[in-house]
Structure formats: C-alpha cells, structure tokens
C-alpha cells in the first residue's frame, strides 16, 4: 500500500507537502492492516456459523443427541415385544392356571396399577421435544412392565400357595400332556379329514407313531377300556371332582388297564394307534368337566412352558382340519 498520496500542511511553507515513510514502517503498517482485516473477517464468519449452525462443541453435542435418540427409538420394538410376552403370560395365568384351578382371575386394570398425581416424567422436559417425548415414552413403558411383572410374581405365589393347600384335588386334575408329540389339531370347529364336513372337534390331536406310550394325565380310576364306534379303542379315566379324560384310536392298553383300575398321573395306560375313523396314526385326547368337553390346552400347565403353550395355540388357530 503506498502512502505518497497522503499530505500534511507545512505552516512554514504555507503548503501541503507529501508524507513519506521509511520502507520498514510501510511494510509493518501494511502487514498490520491485513492482520486486523483477517481477524475481523474470521470473527464475522464464526459469528455467522455459530448463529446458524452452533459452535463446534454444540454441533458435536447435537450429533451425539441424534445418535442417542436413534438408539432409544430402536428400543421401542424391544419394549413392545416384551409387553406382548408379558401379556401372553397374563392371559395364560387367567385362562389356564386360575380358571382351571377355580381361582378368581385378575382383571386387566389390577395388573396395571395407575401412577396418579402430577406428571412423574416432568424431569425430561429440560431436553429437546424429540428427546423428551422418547424418554417419557420409554420410562412410562418400562414402569408399566415393572408393575405388570410384580403383579405376575404375586399371582404365581398365590397359585403356588393354592396348589399346596389343595394338593389332593390337584393330583387328580388332568394337568400334563398324555405324550410328548407334536400338536396337529386343536379344540373347536374343524373339518373332518374323512367325511369332509365341519363339526365340533371335542379334543386335540397329537402326532405319534403306532405303539407310542400314553400316560394318564392325572390320578383317577379307569371307567372304560374297549372299542367304541369311530373312537376305535378308547380309554376313559374318571379323575373325580367332575373331570374325565378320553384317549382314542389306541392300538392297545397297558397291562392291568381295565374298568376299576386305579391309575396315577404319569402312569403308562396305553399305546397310540390308528383304530376307528382317522386320517393316520395319532392320539385324540379329550378333557370333560361335568360331562361337557373343554379345551385340553388349558389343562396342560404342569409340564408345558409358556412358549410351548403359545405354540400350541398358534397351531390350534391355524389348522382347520382334524385327524379324526
């Protein structure tokens, strides 16, 4: 930058005279001007970026928050899956354990006690709207799950206590599977495999090769062991307390099994077969209470896990045809 055009008034000469600088001062002056201009420009850029995008620290924090929100969003599926499992256990608790044992079922509003009072999750209001919403949703659902699990624990303790107090009656309850086989068809309206018409299927069908062991599902007395119509070889056990079980299409009976024989739960009573009107070897199993057929799936609680029970229910819902 040249300064030859800068002037100063000389009172002695009564005229303006040009100002001259030494070369090193001129270089320092020029360098200083550029430094100051650069600092001002950089400060202006930083101010604009900070206003529109935030500081580097703020940008990094926003990126971290976004990742955390994405992670919390991914937990929704996990939490919803857990809720479905807990609900399935609650349904089985009411429909299987409590109904079969004659205990009062637990109402849904009792399984999910309310929190009440002011907003229990107001502490999350300090965060952004998106973060606050997902944190409140997650905390609420987890609290809900914790309450449901605690109620379920108390329910199981109550059932265990009831079982211990009513052990004599429960030994006669048909509470186990008659054999360990794959469920083929469930209880309810089904299409007959031979006659091809829809009618009430009063039991459930287990797949089994001819000669597979069949066990009594509860203590009782043999009421009938012989041939009966489309059932083929049929075994009926009277368990008392209004319960009877039927085992149909057998290939034969175990030694000593005849009317009047006392049997215990788990005792060998017969062998699967293909007698009567069937679509192949299997066991047709029925549970009757006070003379009326009831769904045997609701009585398979002594040796059936919740996962197996849900699998059996799925098969029963989706297979429209029975084996007999």
Average of pLDDT: 84
Termini separation comes to 107 Å
H/I helix tally:
6
> In terms of per-residue confidence, which ranges show pLDDT below 50 for 5 or more consecutive residues?
none
> What is the annotated CATH architecture of the largest domain?
Distorted Sandwich
Rounded to an integer in angstroms, the radius of gyration calculated over CA atoms is 41 Å
Query: What is the CATH superfamily classification of the largest domain?
Result: Glucose Permease (Domain IIA)
Largest sheet: 10 strands, antiparallel
Shape: rod-shaped
CATH topology of the largest domain: Glucose Permease (Domain IIA)
Return the CATH class of the largest domain: Mainly Beta
Please report the total strand number as a whole number.
14
Helix and strand run: EEHHHHHEEEEEEEEEEEEH
């Amino acid at each position: 930058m040249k300064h030859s055009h800068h002037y100063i008034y000389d009172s002695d000469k009564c005229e303006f005279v040009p100002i001259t600088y030494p070369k090193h001062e001129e270089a320092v002056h020029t360098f200083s001007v550029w430094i100051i201009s650069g600092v001002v420009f950089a400060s202006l850029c930083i101010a604009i970026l900070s206003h529109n995008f935030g500081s580097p620290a703020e940008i990094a924090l926003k990126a971290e928050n976004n990742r955390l929100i994405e992670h919390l969003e991914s937990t929704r599926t996990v939490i919803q899956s857990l809720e479905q499992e807990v609900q399935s256990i609650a349904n089985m608790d009411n429909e299987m354990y409590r109904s079969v044992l004659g205990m009062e079922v637990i109402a849904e509003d009792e399984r999910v006690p309310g929190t009440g009072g002011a907003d229990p999750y107001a502490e999350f209001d300090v965060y952004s709207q998106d973060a606050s919403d997902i944190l409140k949703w997650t905390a609420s659902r987890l609290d809900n799950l914790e309450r449901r699990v605690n109620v379920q624990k108390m329910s199981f303790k109550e059932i265990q206590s009831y079982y211990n107090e009513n052990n004599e009656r429960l030994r006669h309850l048909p509470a186990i599977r008659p054999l360990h086989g794959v469920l083929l068809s469930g209880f309810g309206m089904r299409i007959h495999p031979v006659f091809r018409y829809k009618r009430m299927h009063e039991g459930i069908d287990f797949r089994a090769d001819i000669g597979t062991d069949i066990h009594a599902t509860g203590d009782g007395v043999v009421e009938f062991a012989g041939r009966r119509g489309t059932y083929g070889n049929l075994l009926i056990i009277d368990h008392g307390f209004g319960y009877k079980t039927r085992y149909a299409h057998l290939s034969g009976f175990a030694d000593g099994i005849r009317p009047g024989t006392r049997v215990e739960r788990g005792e060998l009573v017969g062998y699967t077969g293909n007698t009567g009107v069937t679509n192949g070897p299997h066991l047709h199993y029925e549970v009757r209470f006070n003379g009326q057929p009831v769904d045997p799936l609701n009585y398979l609680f002594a040796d059936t896990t919740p996962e197996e029970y849900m699998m059996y229910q799925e098969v029963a819902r989706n297979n429209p045809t029975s084996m007999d």
